[in-house]
Write a structure and sequence with these properties.
This protein is an alpha+beta fold and 151 residues long. It has seven helices and five strands, in the order ααααββββααβα. The longest helix has 13 residues. It binds zinc ion (2 copies).
Length: 151
């Protein structure tokens, strides 16, 4: 999808965005999407739930999980499988990859032009339909490295 979404999204923007993704826009979905869209830390469902709850006290963790799964199915967000079953989410649909710190679980963006230009081997086309091609590079971030060396 090439729709550019500003970080401060209005319900009207969201409605339009949902229409192009064939998704029913509801206010609860909007609150969840808006929170994820303004986040830069690639939150988990639990992290997002804590934030959405401050605006929408009636929201449940279950709803956040379900809504994120629906968003993912409609291709308006990306799931990042960096830490096993503790999935993290990204509303930024522009092509980019992730750096994941295995100590503090921070996730940062990076672009990898050479990789992004690579074509998948032909045999993957025989296998089926490819829907995403993303890289998670894991290691220790600088602030964790500093803490480690000063400890
Ligand atoms: Zn770290
Ligand atoms: Zn990202």
């Amino acid at each position: 999808m090439d729709t550019k979404i500003p970080s401060q999204i209005t319900f009207d923007d969201f409605r339009e965005f949902c229409n192009s993704a064939k998704l029913k826009p509801t206010h609860q979905r909007f609150e969840i999407y808006r929170e994820l869209n303004s986040a830069t830390d690639h939150p988990s469902a639990e992290m997002l739930y804590q934030r959405v709850k401050t605006n929408v006290p009636s929201v449940s963790l279950e709803t956040v999980y379900r809504t994120l799964a629906t968003f993912e199915q409609h291709g308006i967000i990306v799931r990042i499988n960096a830490f096993g079953d503790r999935a993290r989410f990204d509303a930024n649909l522009t092509v980019h990859q992730h750096l994941a710190c295995t100590n503090c679980l921070a996730i940062c963006d990076f672009t990898w032009t050479a990789f992004e230009k690579l074509e998948l081997p032909a045999q993957t086309g025989n296998w089926g339909r490819i829907e995403s091609q993303q890289v998670v590079v894991k290691g220790l971030c600088n602030s964790c490295l500093e803490k480690e060396s000063s400890a």
